[in-house]
Amino acid sequence: MNRTPETEKIILGIDPGTNIMGYGVLKVTGRKAEMLAMGVIDLHRYGDHYLKLGHIFERVSGIIDAYLPDEMAIEAPFFGKNVQSMLKLGRAQGVAMTAAIQRQVPITEYAPMKIKMAITGQGTASKEQVADMLRRMLHLDPEEMGKYMDASDALGAAYCHYLQMGRPESDKKFSSWKDFAKKKGII
């Protein structure tokens, strides 16, 4: 019997932020996803916004160099009332994207609602619900989830991208999200 080796893909997820930026790294082998790393880039000690941007570029570049992702999934900023905050967040996202572009890593942007829908089945799910569902789907210990939701949000972006890759099992029909979760051993 002739078998082809399962393809492996590394996906870097980024949750942009100007004080805390989350990242998550998934390794996908065939139809199985596993977390390689997740964490945050803490930017609180940098008072100047431009120093923060420089640090984001250095850290995201380092993460890319360490894990050599094939693709990057990044959460799109949501529209808020504070224009200055939106501009700063957009700059942070742009710098993270520049680090990927410089290393020829393709980027896909996902709206927060799309990520939540892909992970939990609800576009209005809380950060805690997303983190808990990721913990179950990736079979992680609660301690592995960390204290910052930014890291689990980034992992959610990567997992959403994994789900969008057209896995063969996505053709299966389920009667509900609960039915899917039961059949997958999530609940």
Shape, please? globular
CATH C-level category: Alpha Beta
Count of folded domains: 1
Return residue spans where pLDDT drops below 50 for at least 5 consecutive residues.
Answer: 167-171
What does this structure look like?
The chain has 187 residues and is α/β, with parallel strands linked by helices. It has one domain (8-183): Ribonuclease H-like superfamily/Ribonuclease H (Nucleotidyltransferase, domain 5), CATH 3.30.420. It is built from six helices and five strands. It has helices at residues 49-67, 83-102, 112-120, 127-137, 149-164, 177-183; strands at 8-15, 20-29, 32-42, 71-75, 107-110. A five-stranded mixed sheet has the order 3-2-1-4-5.
Write a concise synopsis of the structure shown:
With 187 residues, the protein is of the alpha/beta class. The chain has a single domain, classed as Nucleotidyltransferase, domain 5, CATH 3.30.420.
Blueprint (SSEs and pairs):
Elements: E1 8-15, E2 20-29, E3 32-42, H1 49-67, E4 71-75, H2 83-102, E5 107-110, H3 112-120, H4 127-137, H5 149-164, H6 177-183
